[in-house]
Design goal:
The structure is a homodimer of 287-residue chains.
Chain A: H1 3-12, H2 20-31, E1 40-44, H3 50-59, E2 64-69, H4 81-89, E3 97-101, H5 104-109, E4 117-123, H6 132-142, E5 146-154, H7 165-178, H8 197-206, E6 211-217, H9 225-233, H10 236-243, H11 250-267, E7 281-286
Parallel strand pairs in A: 1-2, 1-4, 2-3, 4-5
Antiparallel strand pairs in A: 5-7, 6-7
Helix pairs in contact in A: 1-2, 2-3, 6-8, 7-9, 7-11
Protein name (chains A, B): Methyltransferase domain-containing protein
Organism (chains A, B): Talaromyces pinophilus (Penicillium pinophilum)
Domain Methyltransferase (chains A, B): 38-126
C-alpha cells in the first residue's frame, strides 16, 4: 500500500461518504501544490466537504480549514450538505475544520473571517459560477486576504482520450442550458459555465494575481463525475426541463437537443463500449 | 487505377474546380444509393455544383440533373457560384445539367419544374438550413414530386476517431452562433444548424416519407471540410463577428468563447499533432 493509498484508506475509515476515487482525485491535485503544514486555508465552494477532509489531513494538526459554501444545508441527495458536514465534524479531523454557509463576499466582510489566509482554494467550484465576471470579482476580493490562490477545474480538452468525450459534450450541454439565465439557476446542475483556463488566467491577472504554475492532472480511472454528468444530460428530467423552457427560440431548442443526441451517440464510441471517463483537471497557483 | 479513381480522374480532367477528395467523397456516398441510369434528379442546395457533376456522370447520357440553390450567383470565393456553374455547363457533362437560382418552394411552384423527379437529393445542404421546421416543410413539398428522397449530411459522432473532434466542436460553435438569429444569417457560415439523423428521420416520417435504408460513410482521408470549418472558427473574422454581437447575454458570449477555445485545444490532441479529419456522413434514403 502506497503512502497515498494508506492516506486515502485512513480517510475512508473515518466513515465518511465520498468514494475512494473522489478522495484520491483531490489528493492527486492537492499534493502538487505542496501545502505547508500548519497553514490556514480558505476553501471556497466546499459542497459536501470531500476536498475539505483531504485538506484537513494535509495541513496537519496545527492547520485549519475554513470551508464556505452558499448552498442551503438541506441541499444535496441522498445526503444533504448539512448532514455531510456534520459527519465530517465528527471525525478525528473535525477539529481542524470550520464550515460556514455563506458566499465569499459576505464571509470576508464578516467578523468571523481571518484577516489573512495562507491559501484560498477553489476545488471544482469554478464551473458552478455563472460567469467569468463573478469569478473576477471574487478573485479581486481575495487579493490581500490570502497569500496564495489555488484553482482546480475540469478543462474541455480530452487530450486524446476519447472516453472523456461524452463528459465534455455533457458539460457543453449544461453550460448552454444554464447560460440562458442571467444568474446561476439554483444549482440544479453541477455545471453552470465552462470557464476555461485562459479565462481563469485572465481573470486572475486582472485581479492582481501573479501566476506561479499551471498543470494538468488526469482523472483517476474510476472517478465518477464524467458518468454523473452524462447521466444527468441523458435523464428524462433534464429533457423535461429543457422542453419546459418557453423563453428560448426554436433554433436554440433544436441546438440543445442536438447536443444531447451528441452525448448519446458518442457515449457508444469507441466500440466496443467503454466506461465514460472524467475530463482532465487544469490546476493553477498564484501569489 | 480503380473504376472509382478513373471516374474521378476523368471528372477532374474536365478542368473543373472541386478537389479530388471532394469528388471522391460525393462518389462514395452516391454509389451507395445505386441511382438508376437515365434518372431525372432534383438536387436541392447544389452550391458550386461538386455533387451535380458526379450526379451527371452517374445518371449517364439519358439522365438529367436539375440543380437549385437560393444563393446569389456572385456568392462564393475565390470562385463564385455563377462562375463555377458556368464552368460545369461547358464540360462534356454540361448538357445533362440545368441550374436554377431558386428556393425549393418557388421552384416547385414554377412552370420549369418537372411534375415528378426520380430522386430528390440533399447533399450536405441540411446544415445550411436554419431549423428542422424548415426541413420538414421542404420534405412535405417534395412529397408526390419525387419518387425517392436521398439525404447525406455530417453527423456529430466521431466514431472513435479523435482526429474528427475539432470539426465536431467547430460545427457546434457555428450552430450556436447562428441559432441566435431567427432565420439563416446570410450563409456567411457553412453551418447554420446541427440537425441530427434522428431529427431528419422524424421530419421525413412526419412529411410522409418511408425510410428505406440508412448508413454511415467515413470521410476520405484528405477531405478538406473539417479543416475549413476549424479554420473558420479560429479566424479573427469569426471572433470579431462574435464580439460585435450586442444582443447576446454575457453568459452566452462566454459560452461561445469557451467553445472556440475547445476547438483550439482539442486540435492539438492527440499529440503529436495530426491533421484534422472531417466528420463521418450519415446518409438515408426514403420512398
Amino acid at each position: 500500500m502506497s503512502l497515498d493509498e494508506s492516506r486515502v484508506q485512513s480517510l475512508l475509515n473515518c466513515g465518511i461518504l465520498p468514494s475512494k476515487s473522489q478522495l484520491q482525485h483531490r489528493l492527486d491535485i492537492l499534493q502538487k501544490w505542496d501545502l505547508i503544514p500548519g497553514s490556514k486555508v480558505l476553501e471556497i465552494g466546499c459542497g459536501q466537504g470531500d476536498c475539505t477532509l483531504v485538506l484537513a489531513d494535509l495541513v496537519g494538526e496545527h492547520g485549519h480549514i475554513t470551508a464556505i459554501d452558499p448552498a442551503p444545508l438541506d441541499y444535496g441527495a441522498p445526503v444533504t450538505l448539512g448532514e455531510a458536514q456534520s459527519k465530517l465534524k465528527s471525525t478525528p479531523y473535525g477539529y481542524r475544520i470550520t464550515f460556514h454557509q455563506s458566499n465569499l463576499q459576505d464571509f470576508l466582510d464578516s467578523g468571523v473571517s481571518e484577516p489573512l489566509y495562507d491559501y484560498a482554494i477553489f476545488m471544482h467550484s469554478i464551473w458552478y459560477l455563472p460567469s467569468v465576471e463573478t469569478l473576477q470579482s471574487m478573485l479581486l476580493s481575495l487579493r490581500g486576504r490570502a497569500k496564495h490562490l489555488l484553482i482546480a477545474e475540469y478543462v474541455l480538452d480530452i487530450r486524446g482520450d476519447i472516453a472523456a468525450l461524452p463528459h465534455m459534450i455533457a458539460a457543453i450541454s449544461q453550460a448552454e442550458f444554464n447560460s440562458r439565465y442571467e444568474h446561476s439557476s439554483g444549482r440544479e446542475d453541477n455545471i453552470q459555465s465552462i470557464i476555461s483556463p485562459k479565462m481563469m488566467r485572465t481573470a486572475a491577472l486582472q485581479a492582481g494575481w501573479e501566476l506561479q504554475r499551471e498543470e494538468i492532472t488526469e482523472a483517476v480511472e474510476d472517478l465518477e463525475d464524467g458518468r454523473w454528468e452524462v447521466g444527468r444530460v441523458l435523464s428524462k428530467r433534464y429533457l423535461d426541463r429543457l422542453e419546459a423552457e418557453s423563453g428560448a427560440s426554436k433554433r436554440r431548442q433544436e441546438f440543445a437537443n442536438a447536443l444531447i443526441e451528441a452525448v448519446e451517440v458518442n457515449r457508444r464510441a469507441p466500440r466496443p463500449q467503454v466506461k465514460v471517463k472524467t475530463l482532465p483537471t487544469w490546476q493553477g497557483s498564484w501569489m
